[in-house]
Amino acid sequence: MNTKVQKGEYMDTLLRSKNSVFSTKDIALLWRDTQTTASQVRLNYYVKIGKLIRVRRGIYAKDKSYDKYEFATKIFRPSYVSFETVSGMTGMTFQYYGNIFVASYVKREIKCDGQIYSFVKMKDSILANPMGVDQSGQYAIACRERAFLDIVYRSKNYYFDNLRQLDWDKVFEILPIYNNKKMVKTVEKYYKQYQINK
């Protein structure tokens, strides 16, 4: 059944959703609404009466406690949380980075609600490959092995504090998606260093 959401149910539809952040496209899909002007008027009304928060142009949140990672992956699509954000979460690096690092098709730095989002440009073939990217939640996030490889792809001489967290079989399984011979040598160098230090 593909019927349009009835009047009075629009806000309930958003509140029932597991998402905390919505793009205008997400909302149009939830509301099954093809009339963008009507949707925009409705969204402006909900923002005006305080039922929704406009976080950024075209992106809305249920409230101020929205998920920052979910928001980060809505700004530019396709994208996934990776790099120092994941390496810090998983203990590969001990230095704190306040930025949220996101793999994307553009290189940008955006500040919103006091949070800095750093978008790192990746080749389309890498960005589109789901290997090592968990997409089961409300946003896509790299596993520690994919984040490690993303960092090596971006920075050839990066210092990692702890590589014992990595599943090296998984690292070498994901590595071919980068299609980069120099990177293979760099990863092998990190692996040898890991074997010496373990």
Please, could you describe this protein's structure?
The protein folds into two domains: 10-61; 68-197, no CATH class. 41% of the residues lie in helices and 17% in strands. It contains nine helices and nine strands. The strands form three sheets. It has a four-stranded mixed β-sheet with strand order 4-5-7-6. Strand 6 and strand 7 (115-121) form a beta hairpin. Residues 11-61 form the AbiEi antitoxin N-terminal domain.
Tally the structural domains: 2
Largest sheet: 4 strands, mixed
Structural class determined from secondary elements: alpha+beta
How large a portion of the residues is in β-strands, by DSSP E? 15-25%
Taking all Cα atoms into account, the compactness measure Rg is: 20 Å
Write a concise keyword list for the protein shown above:
single chain, 198 residues, alpha+beta, 2 domains, four-stranded mixed β-sheet, 9 helices, 17% strand, elongated, AbiEi_N, AbiEi antitoxin N-terminal domain-containing protein
How would you briefly describe this protein structure?
It comes from Candidatus Nomurabacteria bacterium GW2011_GWA2_40_9. The chain has 198 residues and is an alpha+beta fold.
Write the layout of secondary structure elements.
Blueprint: H1 10-16, E1 21-23, H2 24-31, H3 36-48, E2 53-56, E3 59-61, H4 68-75, E4 80-81, H5 83-89, E5 100-104, E6 108-112, E7 115-121, H6 124-127, E8 133-134, E9 141-142, H7 144-154, H8 168-174, H9 181-197
Helix pairs in contact: 5-7, 7-8
